[in-house]
Amino acid sequence: MNALKVKDLRCEYKTNPLGIDVRKPRISWRIESDRRGTMQRAYRLQVSIVENDFENLVWDTGYIESDQSIHIEYDGPELTSRTRYYYRVKIWDNFGRESDWSETAWWETALLDTSEWKAQWITPDPNEIDPLSEPVFLLRKSFELKTGISAARVYVTGVGLYELYLNGERVGEDLLTPGWTSYKKRLQYQTYDVTYQLQEGSNAIGIMLADGWYKGTLGWEGKRHIYGDRRAALVQLHVQYEDGTEELIVTDTTWKASIGPILYSEIYHGEVYDARLEKQGWSSAHFNDADWKGVVVCDLPLIHLVAQENWPTLVTETLRPISSFVTPSGETVLDMGQNMVGRIRMTVHAPAGTRITLQHAEVLDKEGNFYTGNLRKAKQTVTYIAKGEGTEVYAPHFTFQGFRYVKVEGYPNQENGLPLNCFIGEVIHSDMEPTGYFECSNPLVNQLQQNIRWGQRGNFVDVPTDCPQRDERLGWTGDAQVFIRTALFNYQGAPFFTKWLRDLRADQLSDGGVPFVIPDVLTNSIGEASSAAWGDAAVICPWTVYLVYGDKRLLSEQYDSMKAWVEYIRNQGNNEYLWNTGFHFGDWLALDAKENSYIGATPKDLIATAFYAYSTRLVRDAAVVLEKAEDVRIYSELLHRIIAQFREEFVTPSGRLASPTQTAHVLALMFDLVEGETKKRIAHELNEMIIENDYHLTTGFVGTPYLCFVLSNNGYHETAMKLLLQDTYPSWLYSVKKGATTIWEHWDSIKPDGSFWSDDMNSFNHYAYGSIGDWMYRVVAGLDMDETEPAFKRIRIQPRISGPELTYAKASYHSMYGLIESLWHLSDDEVEVKVQIPANTTAEVLLPDAKLKEVKESRSSIESVTGIYSAIETTKGVQLTVGSGVYHFVYPNKHGLRVTFSADTRLIDLLAYEEAVQLLETYAPGITAQPTFGQTKTYTLRQLASMPKVPLSIHQLDEIVEKLNALDLRQAAIKN
User: Is the dihedral of CA 522, 524, 528, 532 positive or negative?
Assistant: First the structure.
């Protein structure tokens, strides 16, 4: 049996994608090997249009010497529409082995040219059905088919949202189709294989049409009809017969229209469904539609139609309520146990006309009552009117809610308690493949990681929204860019962001400005358009997708948009190297804001200029990747001048940052705007600010994503860890201890006394502060990449052992090449590091504080281990270069200083370096602390010195700190 295998073939990131319109699709695969250090040396890729027949090929690469196993671009004859292409791959490795052919995979093209659309846009005749009426439209058509059906595909879209039915059955499982794009420039259509839903003889096809994002209410101002004021459908069904003939069923004036049981359906407000009005069998062949109305053709374009790009929106998980209860106000409420996004599927037996109302909310107020104040104008209410015919099951069709709690009114006999088994929470979001996992020894941090993931799921409903519950749910650019790196660890987000970035490019303003939200529904109504750190999504997001997936094509697609944003900034004001004009959100929701202000204290021009430099740097880097030599020169020079202007404007001659805020210091460090002694001073001052604030942050949306990174990268990792583990307000764990199951919009969305932040803007599912997840993956667990070789082709494993605050951390990530894992575990005696590196990659592994002679791998000395190419001892530890495989390293624990106290509070044991022990015995023989049973706390030496029973002078303290720093022992942990 061949131990070298090609697995998990993907086309444009997807497994067997049905209905794509990419003319040169890209193929990727992963390699499975039983030998360490496996690298691909060559590949062969074959494409056929006949399944399991690779004799008559469409394309054969032949033997290609290359280690490339991702994004191999199809380079055969021009693809044909509506055709399935089968492909397979084999490889050769560096050990001279040849794999078997992979299992066959496929992709299928959709309509590659606009001229192939024969369907017409149709809508109910406005003389018979009011086009502005609220009920959802039903459109249908009966048709006859011959015997011998061999295949059938339907290509369908609508404005706003649609559901398609065939012969009485739903087509596909996708929800909220066709998704939300910049409708006037781009509109997705979906492809479905309906071969087995058709039959010889009589058939019928039907489609429901709701307002959705296209013409429904969007934004807090309650605007409607932003894209258009008519719902319409476009359906094209191709039926192929065994004799080679084909039949075409399309939307045209032969269709008929009616309204049905959905009397109202809105994204924000919910749905009203009257089951008594159901038209049984309305999408079946023998339904009598004699009283249905006519349809008319709409004048809508076909030119901007694109095949589905994003992952489909689906029900990805179901939850059962954990309880029901009656609030102090007498409301009957279900608790789903999790702040989720989706809908409730309800089962009921009830007399005809029974009206059941479900209202959705995220939290209860401090008295335990149902709270909807933060929803603003969004009703989030679903009403079902029973038809009274046995068991009825219902879930809303064209809306979604953000909620943990559901207030139920009108359910039969609910005064005796709600039957929990009659309610199911259906979690809805873009069906991204989970790729990342993080856990550690602190259960609160593990809950934080779960909150981050749930926040992403709830807000990645076709677009990256800010919140999923109130009258907003918009694709805020600032939120997306600060979170994207975390998002791409958690889930496979390439198709998601590819689609969204194409909408950003489509909606970008003629002067290069970038709207606050994408798709853009605000620019025309609020008068402002572009803000630093928000518009920078145009640059940061495509660059991040390139880094994580090696997607050079998307980077190339977006490059002009990236340049246009930087040139937009350059043209602001009268100093092309400083951005000090226009509207900016600043450090949004920072805690150092003035009273009654959302904008933090960091000067907006400092933030704007810092991001100007950052985006210019990334455009320069993109130009390097895309081999645009002249642009490399231009943007390198521009970057140099922006940095010089930043220093002149915001850094004093003595090296102090002009703005005394945490965020100002974070940005200067993160974006490499300072260097040398100035950089050291600014990092030191940032650290001191945090210590003086009792290890609490004051940063908002702009500073928070980078805060822990700059601390860890500038010698203050322990401070970063204290920020992560801080559990009093403001901190990440404060909300966790308050029972949060998603990320909050505000650090104190629920205040310590149980009261709420203002109703005006208080989402309990707002992923921006979840950007800490990126640091948890890359720094705490140490799973990172060498960015000069994107997509984790060259991996960096550099865990930051943080004992005793954490005794282990683990991260795993399913990269384009395969599974990467980094795990460290700290015991009293040893450090254990486990690493998994996928085939066709290499890794640099740092074992912190290790000595080369003391490191064992699977009980063997390093020198004798297969797969380790080099091993050197540095001041930071042992640096290894390794090939693919699983490695298990163990070495003695010399990390940190642990001080243990007995019940009488006397020092009884010291576990650390001998020099550190001697120092403490010399300078602090009387260290004591009041014991608290069952708790472990960590103190810095400065905090120890402040304790009443620790007789240390400032001079003695400084001497201890200096000597311990030399030993890289910067803190003492006290178990009391």
Answer: positive
Catalytic residue among 392, 426, 439, 745: 745
- The answer to whether the beta carbons of residues 499 and 310 sit under 8 Å apart is yes
Nearest to 459 by CA among 742, 818, 854: 742
Dihedral of CA 674/675/677/681: which sign? positive
Q: Which entry of 266, 426, 472, 805 is annotated as an active-site residue? A: 472
At 436-458, the pLDDT tens digits run 999 999 999 999 999 999 999 99
pLDDT at 954 over 90: no
Confidence at residue 527, expressed as pLDDT on a 0 to 100 scale: 65
> The whole model's pTM is what?
0.91
Q: Report the pLDDT value the prediction gives residue 482, as an integer from 0 to 100.
A: 98
First to last CA, the chain: 58
Q: Mark whether 510 and 613 lie in a shared domain.
A: yes
CATH code at 101? 2.60.40.10
Asked whether 278 and 260 are in contact (CB, 8 A), the reply is yes
**147 shares a domain with 65:** no
Is 745 catalytic? The answer is yes
Q: Domain with 822 in it: what CATH number?
A: 2.60.420.10
* 791 and 768 inside one domain: no
What pLDDT sits at residue 149? 97
Active site residue 557: no
SS (H, E, C) 815-848: CCCCEEEEEEEECCCEEEEEEEECCCCEEEEEEE
Domain span holding position 123: 117-307
User: Hey, what are 623's tokens?
Assistant: 């130009």
Q: Could you tell me the pLDDT band of residue 972, with boundaries at 50, 70 and 90?
A: very low
Residues linked to residue 166 through DSSP beta bridges, in sequence order = 169, 205
Boundary (domain end) residue, out of 395, 430, 465: 430
453 and 340 both lie in a single domain: no
Instruction: Assess whether pLDDT exceeds 60 at residue 914.
Output: no
What distance in Å separates the CA atoms of residue 428 and residue 833, rounded to the nearest whole number? 37
Residue 828, pLDDT score? 83
Give the model's confidence band at 963: pLDDT under 50 very low, under 70 low, under 90 confident, else very high: low
List the beta bridge partners of residue 266.
Answer: 270
For residue 847, list its beta bridge partners. 878
633 and 733 assigned to the same domain:
yes
| pLDDT digits 0-9 by tens, 669-678 | 999 999 999 9
State which of 414, 430, 446 marks the end of a domain.
Answer: 430
Question: Do 161 and 273 have their domain in common?
Answer: yes
Statement to judge: residues 640 and 719 lie in one domain:
yes
> What is the C-alpha separation between 148 and 155, in angstroms, rounded?
21
All residues at 6 or more sequence positions from 248 whose CB lies less than 8 Å from its CB, including other chains: 118, 236, 237, 238, 239
Task: Give how many domains the chain has, as a whole number.
Answer: 6
φ, ψ for residue 295, nearest 5 deg: -125, 165
Confidence check: pLDDT of 824 > 70: yes
Q: pLDDT of 445-498, one tens digit each?
A: 999 999 999 999 999 999 999 999 999 999 999 999 999 999 999 999 999 999
> Do residue 917 and residue 870 come from a single domain?
no
